[in-house]
Automatic annotation (TrEMBL):
<comment type="function">
    <text>Catalyzes the reversible phosphorylation of UMP to UDP.</text>
</comment>
<dbReference type="InterPro" id="IPR001048">
    <property type="entry name" value="Asp/Glu/Uridylate_kinase"/>
</dbReference>
<keyword id="KW-0067">ATP-binding</keyword>
<dbReference type="GO" id="GO:0005737">
    <property type="term" value="C:cytoplasm"/>
</dbReference>
<feature type="binding site">
    <location>
        <position position="60"/>
    </location>
    <ligand>
        <name>UMP</name>
    </ligand>
</feature>
<dbReference type="GO" id="GO:0044210">
    <property type="term" value="P:'de novo' CTP biosynthetic process"/>
</dbReference>
<feature type="binding site">
    <location>
        <position position="142"/>
    </location>
    <ligand>
        <name>ATP</name>
    </ligand>
</feature>
<protein>
    <recommendedName>
        <fullName>Uridylate kinase</fullName>
        <ecNumber>2.7.4.22</ecNumber>
    </recommendedName>
</protein>
<comment type="pathway">
    <text>Pyrimidine metabolism; CTP biosynthesis via de novo pathway; UDP from UMP (UMPK route): step 1/1.</text>
</comment>
<dbReference type="InterPro" id="IPR011818">
    <property type="entry name" value="Uridylate_kinase_arch/spir"/>
</dbReference>
<dbReference type="InterPro" id="IPR011817">
    <property type="entry name" value="Uridylate_kinase"/>
</dbReference>
<feature type="binding site">
    <location>
        <position position="134"/>
    </location>
    <ligand>
        <name>ATP</name>
    </ligand>
</feature>
<feature type="binding site">
    <location>
        <position position="38"/>
    </location>
    <ligand>
        <name>UMP</name>
    </ligand>
</feature>
<feature type="binding site">
    <location>
        <begin position="107"/>
        <end position="113"/>
    </location>
    <ligand>
        <name>UMP</name>
    </ligand>
</feature>
<dbReference type="GO" id="GO:0006225">
    <property type="term" value="P:UDP biosynthetic process"/>
</dbReference>
<keyword id="KW-0808">Transferase</keyword>
<dbReference type="GO" id="GO:0033862">
    <property type="term" value="F:UMP kinase activity"/>
</dbReference>
Amino acid sequence: MALVIKLSGRIFDDEELVLRYASVINKLPGKIGVVAGGGELARRYIAVARRGGASNTFQDLLGIYASRLNALLLISLLRDAYPRVPATLEEFLAAWGGHKVVVAGGFQPGQSTATVAALVAEAVGSPVLLNAANIDAVYSDDPRRNPNARRIPEMRYDEFEKILHSSALPGGYELMDVWSLSILRRNCITTYVFDGRRPDHIEAIARGENPGSRITC
Ligand SMILES: Nc1ncnc2c1ncn2[C@@H]1O[C@H](COP(=O)(O)OP(=O)(O)O)[C@@H](O)[C@H]1O
Ligand SMILES: O=c1ccn([C@@H]2O[C@H](COP(=O)(O)OP(=O)(O)O)[C@@H](O)[C@H]2O)c(=O)[nH]1
């Protein structure tokens, strides 16, 4: 069975955490698709570009290249990974046949790596998407803005869509963007959102546990 994991870019801002994820992924059975986010590296370049009046397209492209650098770092730590960062879904699929792990970053402006992860999960036929996020679960509202936000361990995509107010601005797209949800929903792919600081949660989910939030169609 194929498995697809989206790694929040914030994971790549923490050296120890990147090494722990590489160790967990190296031990996972079966074929693994990974998508790396842009993290602090992306936000730093996007902030300078925005300040200098660069277009949203170029701000997104900077985020894409930052996410691809994060992806290449992870590839360098993995045993049997395709040794390049695929820039398109077609390239990802061409690599998928010949390697245990393929690691991508962004694909095109106007979306986030959550959409890349959803496209990859659909393309490789993965029944689940694991989202190692910069938050421990999905809440009724953004817990960083609303201290009364309620943690929601189980929900359906229609409820998830109502909760998310992700801005489609470069470096924004918090948690998951709307395009990712439409792709996940049309394939009935189950998404697990969990604390990205806990690579051990990948094995917990593989054992059938739900350490964060589970979203189903
Ligand atoms: N309903 C929500 N539940 C959980 N987190 C949310 C929600 N709405 C917005 N967020 C925000 O989404 C962020 C997690 O998104 P993620 O893409 O993993 O990290 P980031 O975009 O911060 O790199 C958290 O920082 C959190 O503040
Ligand atoms: O296919 C993609 C993936 C990413 N991005 C850009 O790269 C940034 C970093 O990606 P993301 O926000 O998904 O990373 P994370 O939130 O995990 O750090 C995004 O905000 C977008 O600006 C993009 O334009 N297209």
